[in-house]
Structures are given as structure tokens and as C-alpha cells.
Amino acid sequence: MPNVYEFKDFEGSSHRILIDLIHRYAQRGGTLLDLGASAGHLGHAVRDHFSRTIGFEYEIACLDALRQHFDCALIADLEKVRHLPKPVDAVVLADVIEHLRDSPSLLRLVRDALSPKGRLFISVPNIANITVRLGLLLGIFEYRDRGILDNTHLRFYTMRTIRKEIENAGFRVLAVRGSSVPIRLIIGGWMPEPLLRLGERVLTIMTRIWKSLFAYQIILVAEPQ
To answer: What is the mean pLDDT of the segment spanning 59-70?
Structure first.
């Protein structure tokens, strides 16, 4: 299996927030299209909400896992896709468009693929997160293997810029959430579980109060205009 994104299901994580938003905003019994589905865990977590699920992924090594979690699985380069299955009732773009050279083109394809009552669920890293700001204050801006400054990221977003890009592609934003800094993945190996959960709860509250500063990832729900 290639180095795909790890499924994060703990308090304040982007995947848990996406699952909650999908259950709240997506029409039950419709078709889900997960673009950049990785190993398919997010699609599997909401599979019972839909009548049909379709997963797109770039890494061919993920195909067997995707077939276990989706009704239909495809390997495709989203930079080269010119048509998407339609109509669909929900499209997920979880940690995807920051890797693309031309994300607005994909967003327009998504808009055209959605049914009139369809919903887009999208998450991107927040370059304005406090950890990046403090690093810049100290003169540090270093790419890494994972996280906000993942060395495969081609685009960077703030709350304002991701909202503007989605609206320019023909969507109306319905909800905005922020995931908290994933301390479980950073220091969870040595921190006692009760203390870890307390830290996650505190960060979740701080992120709700001041998303633009503390959100690690920005999660949005949008509908076609």
C-alpha cells in the first residue's frame, strides 16, 4: 500500500467532522462520489447513508481496498478527468485540491455533476494555522512529509481564499468547520489517554471559537448556485 492519508477518527479530526456533516447535509439514499478516496475508509464510514457509492483514487495500489469499501472504484488522475458520473447527490473532496495545479476546473466539474439538491463536502489545510504563523515569526517555513506543509501541496488556503474559490466555481457555502491540531498523531505515543482526550477537547473548543487561527483543516459544505 502506498503512503496514503491515514484515516483520522477522533475528537476534532477532519474525518469525524466530515462524517457528521455528510449525515447532516447529504440526502439519504442518493449517490456518493468520493474523489481522492485514498484507502476508502471515509466512504465506508458513510456507506449506509447512500444507495450507491463511487470512489476515485490516483494510486492503483489502493484499488483492492477501494473495491471493498465502494460499490464502484476507479483509478484516475483528477487533473485529466473531463467528465464525472452524474447526477450525484454528494461529492467528497477530502484533502485533495491542495495537490492540484488547476483545482477550479475540478470544482466546476463537480458542480456540473451534482444534482440540484446535491452537496459538496471539502477539506483543505489551513495555511494560517497558528503553528505555521509561529514558524514564520521564527523564520521557519519547511516542507514535511505530512501536515499543512506537506511537500506535495501545490496550493495553500486560508478561510477566506478557500471560500472564495468555491464560490467562484459556482457554489454557495452552507457550513464551515475547522478541525483541531491532531495532537494524537503528533504526541499520542507517549501521552496518557485521559490527558490526550482532555487536550483534544480543549483544542476543539479553541478551534470553534477562533477557526481562522486554530483550525488545522478547513471543512466546508456547499451547494450548486
So the answer is: 90
C-alpha to C-alpha distance for 133 and 216, rounded to whole angstroms: 12
Q: What percent of the chain has pLDDT over 90?
A: 75
Instruction: Tell whether the model's pLDDT for residue 4 goes beyond 60.
Output: no
Phi, psi of 134, rounded to the nearest 5 degrees: -65, -40
Residue 210: other Cβ atoms inside 10 A: 11
> Burial of 144 by CB count in 10 Å (0-12 exposed, 13-18 middle, 19+ buried)?
exposed
Instruction: Estimate the crossing angle of helix 103-113 against helix 159-168, to 10 degrees.
Output: 50
Instruction: Identify the pLDDT of residue 200.
Output: 86
Mean of the pLDDT values across residues 101-107?
Answer: 95
Domain residues for 131?
Answer: 14-224
- Quick check: helix, strand or coil at residue 29? coil
Q: Are 45 and 70 in contact (CB under 8 A)?
A: no
Q: Are 34 and 95 in contact (CB under 8 A)?
A: no
18 in any annotated domain = yes
Residue 64 lies in a domain: yes
Cα–Cα nearest to 35, from 5, 63, 65, 77: 77
> What CATH number does the domain containing 209 carry?
3.40.50.150
Q: Residue 189 carries which DSSP code?
A: T
Structural domain contains residue 9: no
Q: How many domains does the chain have?
A: 1
